[in-house]
Amino acid sequence: MSDPLRQIIAQNRAGQPVAIPSVCSAHPDVLRASLRLAQRLDRLVVIEATSNQVNQDGGYTGMTPAAFIAFVQGLAHETGTDPARIIYGGDHLGPQAWRKLPAEQAIERAHVMVRDYVKAGFTKIHLDCSEGCAGEPAQLSDAVTVPRAADLARTCQKAGGDDLLYVVGTEVPPPGGARSEDHTDIPATTPQAARATLDAHMAAFANIGEVGGLVVQPGVEFSPMSVHHLPLARDPGLKAAIAHHPGVSLEAHSTDYQHPAAFLRLAELGFAFQKVGPALTFAYRQAVYALDMLAQAAGWGSATIHATMEAEMLAHPANWHGHYHGSDLYLQRHFGLADRIRYYWPRPAAQTAVTSLLARLDGHNLPLPLLWQAFPPEVLDRTEALGGPRPLPLIHATIEAALAPYFLPEAAGSHP
Predict the structure, then answer these.
(1) Helix (H) or strand (E) holding 168
(2) How many angstroms separate the CA atoms of 165 and 210, rounded?
(3) What is the CATH number of the domain that holds 105?
(4) Of 228, 244, 278, the domain-final residue
(5) What range does the domain containing 133 cover?
(6) Closest CA to 272 of 79, 69, 4
(7) What CATH number should be reported for the domain holding residue 380?
(8) Residue 414 resides in a domain
(9) Per-residue pLDDT tens for 153-180?
(10) Residue 39 forms part of a structural domain
(11) Which residue in 200, 196, 255, 204 sits closest to 230, CA to CA?
(12) Residue 37 included in any domain
């Protein structure tokens, strides 16, 4: 299923401002909303899993690569989405999930993981060996990461990867992480560094497989409580840095929460692959918290979601502790842009609370004056197209509103 990606790369390289969104989430409602939107717009979409989310050990979702694809295919059937419009991507595939182990052991497990991804049907493969393992520096040089990535690619090819498109690059944000809180400009990758990294990978992959994407930093990022917006007038020269490799595009990570104009600008700058994840689960939380608040305001029972999630995060702090700092930890836990709360929605107590809320609301009419208190007009307009002012359409419409700007008006990738 990589041929459509090659077409998008070719169009972007020809000067057309086209791009495809890569949705990096395992949340079922985020995926339902994303698939429905792609189907309604008649677009292709990349659905990605990270090495921490999905691996041979189950990751934090409990899913293997094959189970993840089966899960997404089930959601496609449920939402009436043509499965042919879904491209499956593996993100940050490397030793990250086991980096507390010595490098030899962690990399051995990474080889098992990438083999399983390819056998399951993932075709867009981001190989990331940039983070050090036990006893190594936190960030590794191209001299170390490139041979490791090439070795992983060999394993992918042996697993039957005849149609794989590799994404490479060592200047990437940590998976699931975000920049520390500050308000300085985010420096873009220099053209010299981008060219050197790409050239090193192209040489190493020459007799292995096809490199189609290079991850670089265009100057976008978010921290727990602020967004570093793309300087729209700035051209860091990264498109020119890859011009000598015509089949390669740029990939942008951490594009969450950007102004809508940023996505078109990124496409103009050569970023045909644009990833989003936390902004979509953030939108899910927004909608669920809003519905809980409105239910209480209308006298339909006490609000329970917020208290439930606080109890779960305090009882099991591993997924947010160390990511949030300062005196406003309460605000960061619930409203931080890093959205570490997303790790807690699958927990039984959270699932019970959400199910109870939706059941309670389904028994009531949700009048517009009430909905106006929490949902913007764009979301309410989208809700009408999804079945009217009911709880799940409101949640999915909120997620859609966050994802919609990624489907550029001129974007390639319509259904073949």
Answers:
(1) strand 165-168
(2) 6
(3) 3.20.20.70
(4) 278
(5) 3-278
(6) 4
(7) 1.10.400.20
(8) no
(9) 999 999 997 899 999 997 655 544 445 4
(10) yes
(11) 255
(12) yes
| Sign of torsion over alpha carbons 9, 35, 285, 372 | positive
Q: Cβ neighbours of residue 349 under 8 Å, at least 6 residues apart?
A: 308, 311, 312
Q: How many domains does the chain have?
A: 2
Indicate if 317 and 349 belong to the same structural domain: yes
Task: Determine which of 7-11, 37-41, 331-335, 410-414 has the lowest per-residue pLDDT on average.
Answer: 410-414
Is residue 198, in this structure, part of any structural domain at all? Answer: yes
| DSSP string of 238-269, one letter each residue | HHHHTTTSTT-EEEE---TT--HHHHHHHHHT
Helix H or strand E segment including 146: helix 142-158
Return d(Cα 124, Cα 143) in angstroms, integer: 24
| pLDDT-derived band at 363, boundaries 50, 70, 90 | confident
Q: Can you tell me the mean pLDDT for 388-400?
A: 97
User: Which DSSP category does 25 fall into?
Assistant: -
User: Are residues 137 and 149 part of one domain?
Assistant: yes
pTM: 0.94
Which phi and psi angles does 89 have, rounded to 5°?
Answer: -120, 145
Residues 300 and 274 in one domain: no
Report residue 181's pLDDT band, with 50, 70 and 90 as the boundaries.
low
